[in-house]
């Protein structure tokens, strides 16, 4: 990688380092962050992981979770610590996001900081705000890129069980447990190495996928039985979850994670979506089969983006109007397949 040797030289002396990742971190975001943090601490650096929001409880098992600072404008004490850490940092690692808007208010602090920035990411259309870029859209996960960076810097001997399991969790989830088309030969090679460093893949899988609350299981059952809508002529299926629905099932961060994939698993469905009504607007998750590029739908119509077959967006319209907008877009483009089959 172009910047590898320069970064390695920078890390030869102790640095004050901040690591941050995107809003509502998933397993790749948190796993790559805590995995990298574990390595940097072993190298003698002062490291602080900061997230722009909370994240699912099924990720709390990762080593270093108890030291993470969560951005919260309502907590002056936390905000003071975060502001100080970012302002004093020598290096800021930005993981699993390509533009500073993805970290909300934290983005302004990072942009203004005097620290050099390091981008490690696999999403499209990077903002190019960083001094060092380790960016590859061909990578399945940011955790994969973190591992590759350690290889390129000849530092893999510092990987221990905790680092290996954090990185494995990121790769496992971003490949859909190795079912998605981004599962390459290299992915399997990396996973094999992580197992060699002690990653217990059965344990990680259980902690991530088999650690559901009773409320989440009831919510999932309700969503599948009563909320799922299938539109055969558009080869589409979707969920539309209201704020009232979330309150009814006492939904917590992470409870809606992965539910959209059930819609894509229906015979004949090529596009799946999940619309979730939140305080800040309607959050949207898109999924598609190989030939359909939902990231273009997300970026051009819903202020979002992501990967070709897995993307996200948002809408300021009410829930029903957002769903109607999505369906109308599909109907308008049904014949020409514009922006759906072009990639």
From TrEMBL:
GO terms for molecular function: nucleic acid binding. InterPro entries: DDH_dom, DHH_sf, DHHA1_dom, Oligoribo/pAp-PDE_c-di-AMP_PDE. Residues 16-171 form the DDH domain. Residues 249-333 form the DHHA1 domain. Coiled coil: none annotated. Transmembrane segments: none annotated. This is Bifunctional oligoribonuclease/PAP phosphatase NrnA. It comes from the Bacteria.
């Amino acid at each position: 990688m172009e910047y590898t040797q320069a970064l390695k030289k920078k890390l030869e002396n102790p640095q004050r380092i901040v690591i941050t990742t995107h809003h509502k971190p998933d397993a790749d975001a948190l796993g790559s962050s805590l995995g990298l943090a574990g390595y940097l601490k072993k190298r003698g650096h002062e490291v602080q992981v900061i997230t722009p929001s909370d994240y699912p409880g099924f990720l709390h098992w990762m080593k270093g979770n108890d030291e993470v600072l969560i951005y919260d404008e309502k907590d002056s004490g936390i905000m003071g610590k975060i502001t100080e850490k970012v302002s004093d940092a020598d290096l800021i690692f930005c993981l699993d996001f390509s533009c500073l808007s993805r970290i909300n208010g934290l983005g302004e602090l990072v942009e203004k900081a005097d620290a050099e920035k390091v981008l490690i990411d696999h999403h499209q259309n990077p903002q190019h705000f960083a001094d060092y870029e380790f960016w590859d859209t061909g990578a399945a996960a940011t955790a994969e890129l973190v591992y590759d960076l350690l290889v390129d810097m000849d530092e893999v001997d510092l990987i221990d069980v905790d680092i290996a399991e954090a990185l494995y969790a990121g790769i496992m989830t971003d490949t859909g447990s190795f079912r998605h088309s981004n599962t390459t030969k290299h992915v399997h090679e990396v996973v094999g190495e992580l197992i060699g460093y002690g990653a217990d893949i059965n344990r990680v899988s259980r902690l991530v996928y088999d650690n559901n609350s009773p409320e989440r299981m009831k919510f999932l059952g309700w969503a599948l039985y009563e909320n799922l809508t299938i539109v055969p002529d558009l080869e589409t299926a979707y969920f539309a979850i209201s704020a009232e629905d979330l309150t009814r099932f006492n939904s917590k961060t992470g409870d809606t994670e992965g539910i959209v994939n059930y819609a894509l698993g229906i015979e004949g469905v090529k596009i799946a979506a999940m619309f979730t009504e939140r305080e800040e607007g309607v959050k949207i998750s898109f999924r598609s089969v190989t030939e359909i590029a939902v990231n273009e739908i997300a970026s051009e119509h819903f202020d979002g983006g992501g990967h070709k077959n897995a993307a996200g967006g948002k809408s300021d319209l009410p829930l029903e109007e957002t769903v109607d907008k999505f369906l109308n877009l599909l109907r308008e483009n049904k014949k020409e397949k514009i922006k759906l089959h072009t990639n």
